[in-house]
C-alpha cells in the first residue's frame, strides 16, 4: 500500500472511533467537493421580504385585451404570449402606474397565443366605470406552475424600450427613468353587466 492510502485509512479509522466513542466534543467538519471550472455560481440571496423580483426581458412577449363587459368573474384577453418560457397573464386593478390588486391569473405555455380566459379569484370591483379599469400583465413562471408576484417576474415591454431611440438610433437620454421598468401590459375598460 502507498503512504497516501495508509494515511487515508488511519484518518477514517480515527473518525469511526470518535463517532462510536460517545465523545460529543469531537467536531465533524463538512467536506466540500471541489467544483469544476465554469460551473454556475451559487444562487443569489433571496430578495428582501416584500420585494418584488426585477422585471425580465422577453422580446417576443405580447398581451392585448379589448374593452369588454361581463359578470365580473371572468376576463378574456384577446392575445397573450411569452417566448422565454412558461408564464402567466395576470389581471390587476388599474392603479395609476402602480401595480394594482391581483384579481386573477391564467397560465401560458411558451409561445401560446390567442384568446385566454382568466377566471378571477376576486370579482371586478363594483362601480368600476373609469377608463382603463383593469390591466392585463405578463409574468414569467419561476417553475412551480402557480402565480406568486413575489417570485414570478413581470416581463419588460421591449417595444417601449425600442421606441426610446431618437432619430439617430441612439437612446433618448431625456426620457423619464420610470420608463426603464415598463412592463408588458394592456389597460382596458371592463363593465359589469
Summarize, please:
With 193 residues, the chain is α+β, with helices and mostly antiparallel strands. It has two helices and ten strands, in the order H-E-E-E-E-E-E-E-E-H-E-E. Keywords: Signal.
Strand and helix layout:
Layout: H1 3-20, E1 62-64, E2 68-70, E3 74-77, E4 79-81, E5 87-95, E6 98-108, E7 116-119, E8 134-140, H2 158-163, E9 185-188, E10 190-192
Parallel strand pairs: 2-10
Antiparallel strand pairs: 1-4, 3-7, 5-6, 5-8, 8-9
User: What is the arithmetic mean of pLDDT?
Assistant: 73
Order of helices and strands: HEEEEEEEEHEE
The N- to C-terminal Cα distance equals: 87 Å
Low-confidence stretches: 21-46, 161-180
The strands making up the biggest β-sheet line up spatially as: 6-5-8-9
Which bin fits the share of residues in helices?
10-25%
SS content category: alpha+beta
| Fraction of residues in β-strands | 25-35%
Q: What's the shape?
A: globular
Largest beta sheet, briefly?
4 strands, antiparallel
The tally of beta strands, per DSSP, is 10
H/I helix tally: 2
Radius of gyration, taken over Cα atoms and rounded to an integer in Å: 26 Å
Biased composition (Basic and acidic residues): 139-152
Region (Disordered): 106-193
InterPro entries: Slg1/2_DUF7282
Signal peptide: 1-22
Task: Report on the architecture of this protein.
With 193 residues, the chain is an alpha+beta fold. The protein has helices at residues 3-20, 158-163; strands at 62-64, 68-70, 74-77, 79-81, 87-95, 98-108, 116-119, 134-140, 185-188, 190-192. Strands 6-5-8-9 form a 4-stranded antiparallel β-sheet, with no helix packed on it. A hairpin with a 2-residue loop joins strand 5 (87-95) and strand 6 (98-108). Mean pLDDT is 73; it is low at 21-46 and 161-180. Residues 139-152 have a biased composition (Basic and acidic residues).
